[in-house]
Amino acid sequence: MFQRPFQQVVNQYIAGKITEAELIEKTEYKTRWGFDWQLYAPILRFAKQKQIPVLALNTPSEITRKVSRQGIEKLTNAEKQLIPPITEIDTNNIAYRQMVLKAFQQHQSAGHGNSSSANKFFLAQVLWDETMADGIATFIKANPNYQVIVLAGQGHIVYGYGIPSRVERRIQDNNNNNNNNNNNNKFIQRSVLLSIPEVTEVEKDKSIADFILEK
Question: What is the pLDDT of residue 200?
Fold first, then answer.
């Protein structure tokens, strides 16, 4: 729910240098995310009380909008600084593409939307995933003894397609580059959905998540 350019603002809140109202205002929360703040407030208050770092993971909304409308090649050099390198934006997962494009088609009125706009929509979704995964992996590499809890929408989690697979790719690449044979800090991810997902079955032999909490 916080976007990358506002990491320092989040840090200031956790450090007690600004108020909760200032956090909401300075991160432009109401226009960039907009969901009821009270859904997240207890988590942020707890993190502040316990001095737990909070990561601003999301891609700036103006960048995802631009990519979804014009394509990633239209980003300026300054905009590219706020996302991972273009070479790391992996759109090769066909099953994930089909799942995302099905959701895209459901949100389009009859006769609207074409293959070009659908592909840009998928690219914007992947850009979210890669940006968040990049932030997570960067933190883990710098703080290998931390447990990181990520709050994200179901679409970024199910089947491990979105964020999890991209975090794992970065951690594995880092370990391979460092020739790390130490298994004492083995990297483990677990996905937890807070409700039964809306997506239809995509892969029969692949778990949609490690855990689903049913009410």
Answer: 58
Q: How far is CA 95 from CA 31, 98, 102, in A?
A: 32, 5, 11
- Whether residue 37 is found in the same domain as residue 74: no
Residue 56 lies in a domain: no
**Domain total in the chain:** 2
Residue keyed to tokens 């009410």: 215
The answer on 106 and 36 residing in a single domain is no
Gap between the Cα atoms of 126 and 133, Å rounded: 10
**The one-letter amino acid at 195:** S
154-176: pLDDT as tens digits: 999 999 999 999 999 999 977 77
Q: In the structure, what pLDDT confidence band is assigned to residue 108 with cuts at 50, 70 and 90?
A: low
Q: What angle do CA 56, 212, 146 make, to 5 degrees?
A: 40
